[in-house]
Design goal:
CATH class: Alpha Beta
Number of domains: 1
Structural class: alpha/beta
Number of strands: 8
Radius of gyration: 23 Å
CATH superfamily: Alpha/Beta hydrolase fold, catalytic domain
Shape: globular
Order of helices and strands: HEEEHEHEHEHHHHHEHEHH
Number of helices: 12
Length: 321
């Protein structure tokens, strides 16, 4: 009898163990599905807009707006790490990534226009509320979207995106000359802006640890920038950047008036934007959470895990998970 009871107990234990193993496998499989990234496209304003999407659409949405000369690809580290708890959507602007790149003669490459297309993109996907993550060009695109529809913004995450003069250091003097007289300065700007050396410098900046960078980052971007038509597209868009600088006071006033929960994550080795910009956000947003990292302009390339933890913790406290 004792042997029989022992056998039954062992069988029950084994059954429970197998059941638990199956349940764990099912849970792991579900997590894997949640973490997978879909590469989609949608028609917006007569253009094919490519985007990456991960996570459940029923979870809080994080809209990720990329910088120059990047695409939604820059957000792969966050898509992989946050999709279990959040719905992440990362579009490519017109002229970038895998979205359509119409000829500048037929399409106005301005930040007003990019913001309009991105606004219509969110509406086409039914994104009525979202947290907004902006980097570099994502700042001027995102600020226009926030001002147009403040009710849609839940939280703001800024990674090396400028809305104060503090962020524009000596490097910007030549760029201001281009804005003041495009005809006289465009050839010089193109020679520098689209070179392999400048493209590399955007990534490495002042970081003394150059061995942490994958050279594919800048060679891929250099190849993109030298595709037919890109020089015209990017020159037009950068000429319009002067209107972003003129809009800084309006954006700052909006931040002071609305006080969105804000996380600032800044790569201190950024050659494009001065690190003083990170603290400048506190003038408008006293409760902003500011973190300066040992990273560069594209901080996600160097500190993906650290940034994912900061973003996940911030979103968890403000929009749930």
């Amino acid at each position: 009898m004792n042997k029989l009871l022992s056998a039954l107990a062992l069988g029950c234990a084994l059954g429970l163990s197998l059941a638990n193993t199956a349940q764990a496998a099912e849970s792991a499989s579900h997590s894997q599905v949640q973490m997978s990234v879909a590469y989609r496209s949608i028609q917006v304003d007569g253009l094919t807009i490519a985007y990456r999407e991960a996570g459940s659409p029923t979870a809080p949405t994080l809209l990720l707006l990329h910088g120059f000369p990047s695409s939604s690809r820059m957000y792969d580290p966050l898509l992989a790490r946050l999709a279990q708890n959040y719905h992440l959507v990362a579009p490519d602007y017109p002229g970038f990534g895998h979205s359509d790149a119409p000829d500048p003669k037929a399409f106005d490459y301005t930040f007003d226009h990019l913001a309009s297309v991105m606004q219509h993109f969110t509406e086409a996907l039914g994104l009525n509320q979202y947290s907004l993550y902006v980097q570099d060009y994502g700042g001027p695109v995102g600020f226009r979207m926030m001002l147009a529809h403040p009710e849609r913004l839940q939280t703001l995450i800024v990674q090396n995106a400028v809305s104060h003069e503090d962020g524009l250091g000596p490097l910007w003097q030549k760029r201001r000359e281009f804005w003041a007289n495009r005809a006289a300065n465009e050839a010089g700007l193109r020679a520098s802006f689209f070179s392999l050396a400048t493209t590399r410098q955007r990534h490495v900046g002042a970081n003394p640890n150059v061995e942490v960078f994958n050279p594919d980052l800048w060679t891929d971007e250099f190849n993109f920038l030298n595709q037919p038509g890109q020089a015209d597209i990017q020159s037009d868009l950068f000429y319009d950047y002067r209107n972003n600088v003129a809009s800084y006071p309006k954006w700052q006033a909006w931040l002071r008036a609305h006080q969105p929960p804000t996380l600032v994550v800044w790569g201190q080795f950024d050659p494009s934007f001065d690190v003083a910009e990170a603290e400048a956000y506190r003038r408008d947003l006293p409760n902003a959470e500011v973190h300066v990292l040992e990273a560069g302009h594209f901080a996600l390339d160097e500190k993906p895990g650290e940034i994912a933890v900061l973003v996940g913790d911030f979103l968890g406290r403000h929009v749930g998970r």
